[in-house]
Amino acid sequence: MKRSTLTQNAKNSVGTLVARMAVRKALRPFPELRHRSAYIIGAKLPNDTDTDTYEDALAQEFRWEISDGWTRNDLPNFHYFIEEEATTKYRRKAPFEAYSLARDVAEHQRLIGVDTPDHPMSAAFRSVAEAIIEIQPDTKHIVAAVLLARGFSITEKQAEELRSDKLANLTTAFRGDRSLAKALQLLEALREAEASDTTIVEGTSKVASLQNMAGYGAARTWGLELARDLRDWKRKKLSWGDVDRGVLLVGKPGTGKTVYARALAETCGAHFVECSLSKMQGLGHLGDMLKGIGRAFQEARNNSPAILFIDEFDAVGNRATLSSHAPEYATQVITGLLQLMDGTEKRDGVVVVAACNSLETIDPAFLRPGRLERVIEIPLPDLDARKAIFRQHFGAELQDTVLSEVGRLTDGMSGADLEQLARGCRRHSRRSVSGLNELDVLETLNDKFRKVPDAELQRYAVHEAGHVVAANLIYGAIADEVSIRTHFPADNIRFVNSGGTTVLPIRIKLCQIKDDYLNEISLAFAGHAAEKLVLGCASDGSGLASGSDLQKATVLAATLVASSGLSGALAYRAEATGKDMLKLVRNDRHFKSDCDRILHDQMVRIEALLAQNLSLLERVSTKLLKKKNLTSHDLKKILTPDERDRT
């Protein structure tokens, strides 16, 4: 006997294939079950909406070919948990009838209990089940299913976005001759349509489900997992000790940390409690502040499950870096908060979500297990996220060309910036007779953004080309993507110095040697050096701001000298954080001189390396200036000798 293969049925859809792969993975620890004529199995499904698809997948996995054209038809029967009773249907065609578990077991040799979030498995069934499998599609299943069904290659990042979609929606989106871009666009529209059904209104603001929000990456994945854990905890299927107690969100102002916390509470079906530490400090006396925070914890405990959101958490401070101004006050605040998190009173059902702008300002004691045990960065939204956020706030359908223009112009903007831009577009539309329309969006964009002068655009291209070529020469790496900014917000000068972006492949090294530090410093200086070589002088675009090339290089040099033991000095000066390193540079002139020597040597090194490859640097910058955006495929043609010969 043999199993049917996934490609045997030409009519397999993306949703069907994902279900089949997920079922196969879940059954892998129990290979003997497929060969048996009698079994009782529990199957935990990820949602309540794709039950039929998963049932079909289970039936297919237990369907065996005996000989050519003949199959074994002893398909499983499915048992459903509805409050105290269950319903069985045979091969998905029989009418729903209430049966006791004992009768089902007696009447059916092959029984699969279907556990879903809304209808969990009963304790009685769990006690008689020979095996319990958990069916959970992963990104590899989605990548493979889309390739098998439609021949499209999608990235792991795209698959992660699709992971939370209903299987029926995946099947619908990838049906027929629809292109990959159109399929992804349809899925986004389906998410928005479903979001309107799962959105609640508080006053005048809408709280959306986390499942339908774009741009949150790892935070979104963690939040959806927490929602499932809290559902299991409420049903006593999971102990509180197995649920994450807290998370620290780190991100720049405007990245949507508060919006995320509200969406997390909505997705988890949890009570939402919000407090701001800076506002609590405004209460005056230390005792009043601690009482205010204590009341927030008490409200969360009284209404569990609850999400307790503590905003501006960096206002608490770090005991290792407290200034001489009122250190006792800050220490008592930290101690009081730690006691509330640990507490003699249990906080079962209360998940603490804290938000800050910089991790370096947080006392390490808060990051221990049982407190804020996870740290997740909320990044600025990428291109796809910016388009989705703008569409969500604009509130009307827009063509891909318009959304692409929005995404291109808004590089570096936060979610709050995009909301403000959408509000301006809506304001412009209200004055037009035709209401919300794409022409108004384009006119507003023309008013809000100014074109970068040609001379500066060339400088941006040369600068980013320096990073691209240096990464290739030093590491042999091809950048994932490089782009330059063609416009900047007319009323927001802080974006002017962000002329372009180079995205390099992630390199993971658990420990580093001295050359690793020096290579990274050289790479940081490559844009500055390229400007000098090609244009005759460099601009201040490598510096001025936190996170700039110059800051990164300075922190790397300071770390090499102060705490790595690799520079000849073995004394440990400070922890390797950007804040501590820059403080040493400011306060110790001898230390600063040591750092300057390293920085100067690496600047000379990268200038010489790029000068030896000037023609390559000019080819990349010319192509980038022409196209404004280059992919890894584009760059490979320029940087790889074999590819250059073909073109």
What can you tell me about this protein's structure?
This protein is of the alpha/beta class and 647 residues long. The strands form 6 sheets. It has a 6-stranded mixed β-sheet with strand order 7-6-5-8-2-9. The chain has a 5-stranded parallel β-sheet with strand order 13-14-15-12-16, with helices on both faces. It has a 3-stranded antiparallel β-sheet with strand order 1-3-4, with no helix packed on it. The relative contact order is 0.06. Residues 65-71, 83-99 and 196-205 have low confidence and may be disordered.
Spatial arrangement of strands, main beta sheet: 7-6-5-8-2-9
State the CATH class of the largest domain.
Mainly Alpha
Work out the helix count.
25
Number of domains: 4
Distance between the termini: 53 Å
Give the low-pLDDT segments.
Answer: 65-71, 83-99, 196-205
Give me a quick take on this structure.
The chain is α/β, with parallel strands linked by helices.
Defining key terms:
647 residues, alpha/beta, Rossmann fold, Helicase, Ruva Protein, domain 3, 4 domains, 6-stranded mixed β-sheet, 5-stranded parallel β-sheet
What is the topology?
Elements lengths: L1 E2 L10 H14 L11 E6 L6 H11 L2 E4 L2 E2 L5 E6 L2 E6 L6 E3 L1 H7 L2 E6 L7 H6 L2 E4 L4 H12 L5 H7 L4 H7 L6 H16 L4 E3 L2 E3 L9 H18 L11 E5 L6 H12 L2 E6 H5 L4 H17 L3 E6 L15 H16 L7 E7 L17 E4 L5 H12 L5 H10 L5 H16 L7 H11 E3 L2 H22 L5 E4 L2 E3 L10 E4 L10 H22 L13 H14 L15 H10 L1 H24 L1 H14 L1 E3 H8 L1 H6 L1
Parallel strand pairs: 2-8, 2-9, 5-8, 12-15, 12-16, 13-14, 14-15
Antiparallel strand pairs: 1-3, 3-4, 5-6, 6-7, 10-11, 17-19, 18-20, 18-21
Helix pairs in contact: 1-2, 1-5, 1-7, 5-6, 7-8, 9-10, 12-13, 14-15, 14-16, 15-17, 16-17, 18-19, 18-23, 19-20, 19-22, 20-21, 20-22, 21-22
